[in-house]
Design goal:
five-stranded mixed β-sheet; alpha/beta; 143 residues
């Protein structure tokens, strides 16, 4: 059973306020993560407390970094069921996790931050990890 949209709408807005694009279908995911998509951060959003108090605020902080991905998208676990499943197919070999964040280059995963790495840290620490990944991967692709 999917989460009711009125329940999760504010949780979606926690990310879209930063310009994060919602990808609610597999086709939406494919459009964002196409072969020439550049660097894309994909966030698996969730209703859990670590998403609310840590993951979503960390994304906002990290997107203030000098280097950042070309695009940022999100799927919502428990709501965008097919889109989440499709994203997890693209992350084959990596365990499913929500919340989580994965950085892709041209549709191929480069870096992933799993729930266990999120729930044990505070938002500024998570933002620093993301910013470091942006500095490493998002600069290299543009050189």
């Amino acid at each position: 059973m999917r989460y009711p949209e009125p329940l999760i709408a504010p949780m979606r807005a926690d990310l879209t306020q930063y310009g994060v694009v919602e990808t609610r279908t597999p086709a939406d995911v494919d459009r964002l993560l196409g072969p020439n998509s550049g660097n894309v951060l994909m966030i698996v959003n969730s209703v859990c407390g670590c998403a609310a108090g840590k993951a979503r605020p960390a994304v906002g902080m990290a997107l203030a970094n000098e280097h950042k991905p070309d695009a940022v998208g999100t799927v919502f676990a428990g709501a965008d069921v097919e889109a989440v499943a499709h994203l997890r197919e693209l992350l084959a070999g990596l365990p499913p996790s929500s919340p989580s964040m994965a950085l892709f280059r041209n549709g191929k995963p480069l870096f992933m931050l799993h729930r266990h790495q999120i729930e044990s840290r505070q938002a500024p620490e998570i933002a620093q990890i993301l910013s470091s990944a942006f500095d490493e991967f998002c600069v290299t692709a543009k050189q």
